[in-house]
Write a structure and sequence with these properties.
This protein is α/β, with parallel strands linked by helices. The protein contains twelve helices and five strands. Helices cover 42% and strands 11% of the residues. 23% of the residues are buried.
Length: 261
């Protein structure tokens, strides 16, 4: 009989002494358990517990605590948007034997400036009046339906305080190059790459940030994905995956304008 491999989806604290195994039915997926899982965890933002404080320090420390006993370190750590910023902060908390060979930050939120109250209110409203799949697809014609479904799911699970507190952190300078990017001396064994969307389309990483990177962080590689938007992990997933796997080797052929290899 051939061996079977199972995909696992987890909720809550991996270090918890209380664990439950939930098995889905025919034609189902682990995600169908999210309501029950939330009750078992007692709180839930996405598939992790809520926190009273959301900041660069609290989020990255939580990530580092969950990785401290890891036997096999990750070869690559990558993130997109806010996740890129937290990936950079996490790097500095990891011991040397857990630092990855490559750190890829796609569209990182760094020195982007504070969000206007109108922007914050707009995001908060989407968590209260969740758009339909059709309206999401209409607003994002390059997305597939599965991405619209996941978008609706994430909006239904998000803690609104994430939006408020992290937006405030942007205004206070917590999400800055100087606070987040690992120093050259601390990252000698790691290839660090920032991958931005096309500035001629729309990007959170404009020319001004690219110039700052070149002047102050010469050890960081940088490139723009041609015709990509902030959602490159959805619309340009193949390009992003190639960079995660191979760095900038062959990246120009894949559609990346490499400014600093």
């Amino acid at each position: 009989m051939p061996s079977l491999q199972f995909g696992f989806q987890s909720w809550g604290n991996p270090a918890s002494t209380k664990r439950a195994l939930l098995l889905h039915g025919l034609m189902g997926t682990g995600g169908v358990w999210f309501k029950v899982a939330q009750i078992l965890v007692a709180q839930g933002h996405g598939w992790a517990p809520h926190s009273p404080i959301y900041s660069v320090k609290t989020v990255t420390q939580h990530l580092a605590d969950n990785l401290k006993d890891q036997d096999i370190p990750y070869e690559v750590i990558a993130g997109v948007s806010w996740g890129s910023s937290f990936a950079a902060a996490l790097y500095s908390l990891l011991p040397d034997n857990q630092k990855p060979k490559r750190l890829v930050m796609a569209e990182p939120i760094m020195d982007y400036g504070p969000r206007s109250q109108a922007d914050v209110d707009r995001m908060l409203n989407t968590t209260k009046d969740i758009p339909t799949e059709e309206s999401i697809l209409k607003a994002n014609p390059n997305w597939i339906r599965a991405e619209a479904i996941l978008r609706r799911l994430s909006l239904s699970l998000i803690d609104p305080q994430v939006i408020v507190q992290l937006s405030d952190a942007m205004g206070s300078g917590d999400f800055s190059h100087s606070n987040l990017i690992p120093s050259q001396s601390s990252s000698k064994s790691t290839e660090i790459i920032i991958l931005a969307a096309d500035p001629d389309v729309k990007t959170v990483y404009p020319y001004s940030n690219a110039k700052r990177l070149e002047a102050d962080f010469p050890h960081v590689k940088f490139g723009w994905v041609k015709k990509a938007t902030h959602d490159m992990h959805k619309t340009d997933s193949g390009v992003l995956a190639k960079v995660i796997l191979n760095g900038f080797d062959g990246a120009e052929q894949a559609g990346v304008t490499v400014l600093r290899p």
